[in-house]
Write a structure and sequence with these properties.
mainly alpha, globular
C-alpha cells in the first residue's frame, strides 16, 4: 500500500469516527478488531432505524468518496450533536483532500 493510499484510508476512517463520535456502538459495528473499516457492515446488513441508518450511510459515503445520502436528512433529521459531528468529520475529510492535493502537486504521487 502506497503512503498516499494509507493516508487516504486513515483519514477516511478518522472522518467516519468523528461523524459517529456520539454513537460508539456504530463505530464498533463499522470497524474490525484491527481498527480497519468493515466493508461487510453495510446499511442493509445492519438494518438500523434513523438516525443510525443515516449515520451509517454517511460513513459509507465518506468511505466511498461519494454516495447517495440525501443532505436533507443530514440537515433536518440528525440531532444537533450529530450534525456538529458531521461538520467536524467534513473538516477531517478536508485535511485528506489537502494531503492528496499536496501529494500530486509536489510530485510525491504520480497517479
Amino acid at each position: 500500500m502506497s503512503d498516499l493510499s494509507k493516508i487516504n484510508s486513515d483519514m477516511r476512517l478518522t472522518a467516519i469516527k468523528t461523524v459517529l463520535r456520539n454513537h460508539p456502538f456504530l463505530i464498533e459495528k463499522l470497524t474490525k478488531e484491527n481498527g480497519a473499516f468493515d466493508t461487510t457492515a453495510t446499511p442493509e446488513t445492519l438494518d438500523l432505524d434513523d438516525p443510525g441508518d443515516i449515520l451509517v450511510r454517511l460513513a459509507w459515503d465518506i468511505w466511498n468518496g461519494g454516495g447517495e445520502t440525501e443532505l436533507d436528512k443530514v440537515f433536518n433529521q440528525l440531532s444537533e450533536e450529530d450534525f456538529v459531528a458531521f461538520i467536524d468529520g467534513m473538516k477531517d475529510f478536508l485535511a485528506l483532500r489537502k494531503k492528496i492535493h499536496f501529494a500530486y502537486v509536489s510530485g510525491m504521487e504520480d497517479d
